[in-house]
Design goal:
Helices cover 36% and strands 19% of the residues. It is built from 21 helices and 17 strands. The chain has helices at residues 4-18, 23-31, 37-44, 108-119, 139-143, 156-163, 181-187, 205-209, 217-221, 223-229, 239-251, 292-298, 343-358, 376-380, 383-396, 411-415, 439-446, 448-453, 457-471, 474-479, 492-503; strands at residues 51-53, 58-62, 68-73, 76-83, 86-93, 124-130, 170-179, 191-195, 199-201, 234-236, 305-307, 315-322, 325-332, 363-369, 401-410, 425-428, 433-435. Strands 1, 4, 5, 6, 7, 8, 9 and 10 form an eight-stranded mixed beta sheet that branches. It starts with a helix and ends in a 15-residue tail after the last helix.
């Protein structure tokens, strides 16, 4: 006697699961330009590496003899797989079954995915399409009672969703309409991507309409809104691009806080000196320049991976490699408010500094910051409060840190270019220019009497400005050892690669004392 009948039954149930919501619902998904959850998982992870958990869970239909006639699977698909040979957990919503709503799910499945990532210390990728919360309005009728958010037995999922951010890399992919808890799961990630035809919101257009605002999905929570607000890091045209972004993001990080980021083979000469850096910064301090070409010139070729580009635009954030070693890059962008730190730029710095601390990434900061943003709008945004939070975040870090002062370093925001009370590396370009306050505007106040008494006030003001600018030379500060080194810009890559080599043994793995703040 064998167990063939039972194995045949298992195969039949697995076949039902692969049908998902049925041929008509799968066709509708494809007709709307979206892949099914199983197609997404296949394209996301290494071919043939998916080990599914709970495939045959769902709602079975039985005949009078107790024989299974059909199985509607739960609309959560999860399991283990590999990306570039490294194990990961992947969990996805099946929109073909009740639109990804929780009333067609089994809550233990997404919970177990989070538990598996946490306890086995594996990165988790959430493929999100739907609400994934307490169900739809109909759930009240089908369950016979209203769901209490966070009610008895209902909080473990939430705990693991946040706890994982201090433990393992978390990626969220929004690939359709994402609402409610689905939106929270997407935002509660270290890196989030949405397709440009997707939308994310706390509540969708029908609910918002009841409050007097008639908006379609894109107007309410489309990619332009979410990436500029910082709700989502990146928007792409296709789902395949989203999968590529997720894979690349994970390539810079360890599997958990108990390991170190992988080092790759580097074919780019660490001593490469790019002559274009000599002309990268204009002599006219009022003239802007492009920072991204400077980043590309000093890191390993093609290694810069930018994140959250549309949010907090005075600061550029991303990963890069230096002689194959992963680092987190902060860089000023003078094209936006001259590089001044706005309230949203401060929030961005806090988030990415925390990310570096959590996963043991050395920080490289290419600095051109004339201070905090000033003016009425900046005061209304409580910029200084967010700025003080940046000071705390930077000063709490323990990872190695290296700053290259490219041009401006002024005021309180200028202070926050390296952690306080510990050694970090710092170099200045000859174009560097710093002080407690910029001369522009300050001369009129400090030398008002002398200027007003002069026969030619404008000439006197220019004379004073020229005199003070000579004292502002970075070489004067270097003479007093107020800055360690002024360097030839062409040496920047060599020095940064040396920094990465020196930093490598200092990145001690272990649970971070800084929980990531989503």
């Amino acid at each position: 006697m064998t167990w063939k009948p039972e194995l045949d039954d298992l195969s039949r149930r697995e076949a039902f699961a692969r049908e998902m919501g049925g041929a008509d619902k799968v066709k509708r998904q494809h007709d709307q330009g979206r892949l099914t959850v199983r197609e997404r998982i296949d394209k996301l992870i290494d071919a043939g590496s998916f080990h599914e958990v709970g495939a045959v869970s769902g709602v079975g239909e039985y005949d009078a003899d107790g024989e299974l006639t059909h199985l509607t699977p739960a609309n959560c698909v999860f399991g283990r797989g590999r990306i570039e040979g490294r194990p990961v957990v992947v969990v996805g919503d099946d929109f073909t079954v009740r639109g990804g709503s929780a009333d067609a799910s089994i809550s233990a499945k997404p919970l177990m995915a989070e538990e598996m990532a946490h306890d086995f210390r594996l990165p988790i990728i959430r493929v999100i399409e739907g609400s994934g919360g307490g169900g739809s309005v109909k759930t009240i009728e089908t369950k016979g009672a209203a769901n209490l958010p966070g009610g008895v037995g209902g909080t473990r999922w939430y705990w693991y969703t946040i706890a994982n951010m201090a433990q393992v890399p978390v990626v969220g992919l929004g690939l359709g309409s994402v609402a409610g808890l689905g939106a929270a799961r997407l935002a509660a990630s270290h890196y989030s991507v949405m397709t440009k035809n997707s939308a994310m919101f706390v509540a969708g257009p029908p609910v918002v309409a009841r409050f007097g605002a008639t908006l379609d999905k894109k107007a309410l929570g489309g990619s332009e809104i979410q990436t500029r607000a910082g709700g989502v890091d990146h928007a792409v045209e296709t789902e395949e691009e989203a999968f590529a972004c997720a894979r690349r993001f994970l390539s810079y990080l360890p599997s958990s806080v108990y390991g170190l980021p992988p080092t790759t083979i580097c074919t780019d000469d660490p001593e490469r000196a790019d002559a274009r850096l000599l002309n990268a910064v204009p002599r006219d301090r009022k003239q802007v320049y492009k920072m991204r070409p400077i980043i590309d010139a000093v890191v390993d070729r093609g290694s810069f991976f930018e994140m959250a580009a549309n949010f907090g635009r005075p600061i550029i954030t991303g990963f890069a490699r230096l002689e194959g070693r992963a680092v987190l890059v902060l860089a000023s962008d003078p094209f936006h408010h001259g590089g001044s730190w706005t309230a949203d730029a401060c929030q961005k710095v806090v988030r990415f500094v925390d990310l570096a601390e959590t996963f043991h990434l050395p920080v490289v900061y290419l600095m051109d910051c004339p201070g905090f943003m000033i003016g009425l709008d900046a005061e209304k945004a409580a910029t200084i409060r967010h700025g003080v939070r940046v000071m705390a975040a930077v000063n709490q870090t323990t990872v190695p840190w290296c700053t290259i002062i490219i041009r401006n370093a002024f005021g309180v925001a200028g202070v926050v270019h390296q952690p306080a009370n510990r050694l970090s590396m710092r170099y200045a370009w000859p174009s560097a220019y710093w002080g407690s306050l910029p001369l522009e505007g300050g001369i009129e106040a400090a030398y008002r009497a002398e200027i007003e008494a002069a026969e030619d006030p404008k000439a006197k003001q220019q004379e004073i400005e020229d005199r003070l600018n000579k004292l502002r030379s970075p070489f004067r500060s270097a003479e007093k050892f107020w800055v360690e080194e002024v360097i030839n810009p062409m040496k920047t890559r060599s020095l940064l690669c040396e920094f990465a080599r020196l930093a490598e043994p200092l990145r001690m793995p272990g649970p971070s004392r800084l929980a990531m703040r989503p």
